[in-house]
Amino acid sequence: MADNRMKDNKDKEISRAIIKRLPRYYRYLGELIDEGVEHISSSGLAHIMGVTASQIRQDLNNFGGFGQQGYGYNVKNLYDEVAKILHIDRIHKIVIVGAGNLGHALAQYANFERRGFDIVALFDRDEKVIGTTVGGKPVYAIDELTKFVNDNEVEIVALTIPKEAAREIAEKLKDTNIKGILNFAHTDLHVSENITVENVHLTDYIMRLCYKMHE
Amino acid sequence: MADNRMKDNKDKEISRAIIKRLPRYYRYLGELIDEGVEHISSSGLAHIMGVTASQIRQDLNNFGGFGQQGYGYNVKNLYDEVAKILHIDRIHKIVIVGAGNLGHALAQYANFERRGFDIVALFDRDEKVIGTTVGGKPVYAIDELTKFVNDNEVEIVALTIPKEAAREIAEKLKDTNIKGILNFAHTDLHVSENITVENVHLTDYIMRLCYKMHE
Predict the structure, then answer these.
(1) Which of A104, B49, B152, B171 is the most buried (most CB within 10 A)?
(2) Rounded to a whole number, what is the largest CA-CA distance in chain B?
């Protein structure tokens, strides 16, 4: 089904907007599974997610529409289907560069495995932390990063380091086989065509909150 | 100028899209100031931000259009104007609930003051951390939270705690005078009409990255 989305530009655009919402669907469906809910109607899902039932039906129709009249959606099926579209139905290896507070927070973030991600190691240049473990994961010297990611088929590198260091590391990663960078440094990184970058700017959120508070 | 934006719904909608982009403008303008750049053309700004010059002109026209023909924008003026629109031209007091790794990372986040925010204290329920300091800020017992935020005119509470605890604390904050919650817990919080919530879901970013990597 997913491939149909790509058949023309208009479809692709629709898809992009939905993709942005998919992680949220995935989060809510995961909560429903935890609560033992097996089926849910579009209006039930709409209620807990704070959107309209027609939005839910429209979104879910786009990737197959698994609801049955008078029965609703099978929560587990829908959850698995969303995982498949997001490509998190298989595990992606991640390493974290920067074993500071944010690196620690990420490494110990609950439920990452459940969402298709496995943090395999951290990297730092501080001799004091190299050789230690964080959340059971080893911390290696930053010099070993590029060899490690290639040898271990790491797909994602999370950068929890200041911006100058992030730019330097991103440059080195150009020649590796990684596919994505999750960048927490206070700068937008642009690496190469082969490496997708997702920039996470914590200060942007607090500024947006501040604006909305005053509306 | 800013008030004109609210004059009808269409204007308001245009504004919302721009508001989303403003923190990014603010970040780039801040970098230009750091680099000693005093003036920049719309095409220069477009180039470093990876957008079109017409997008820049359109956006900036919406809040006054400070560019001068053949001279460009005064970087510092534009920076100050963006700050004003985002209401970060004055300091907002923040407390952080949860003195764990993410709380530490936030408390030590560089340049928060420069962006209109002052972290005044952290709160935790762990006896071992109560009474210590994080980045020079005191850690108090969670029981003192509601009294503290009212007594000290705290406007924003950042929640860096698990979701059950976050829901519980959010409930208690309903009766305080705070204006906003920055929620990092893995759940969407809805508090009350008087309190704006910005939910920051780190896992959503990594899922989106994963999807884009496979596109």
Answers:
(1) A104
(2) 62
Identify the bridge partners of residue B156 per DSSP, sorted by sequence position: B94, B180
Backbone angles phi, psi at A174, to 5 degrees: -55, -35
Query: DSSP of A39-107, one letter per residue?
Result: EE-HHHHHHHHTS-HHHHHHHHHHTT---BTTTBEEHHHHHHHHHHHTT-SS-EEEEEE--SHHHHHHH
Amino acid at B193: E
Q: C-alpha dihedral over A107, B156, B154, B145, to 10 degrees? A: -50
Give the best residue of A26, A210, A214, A215 to mutate against chain B (max B CB count within 10 A): A210
Q: Which two tokens stand for residue B100?
A: 């764990």
3-state secondary structure of B137: strand
| Chain A residues within an 8 Å CB radius of B51 | none
Per-residue pLDDT at A26 exceeds 80: yes
Global pTM value: 0.86
Q: Which percentage of chain A shows pLDDT scores above 70? A: 87
Assigned token pair, B199: 């939910």
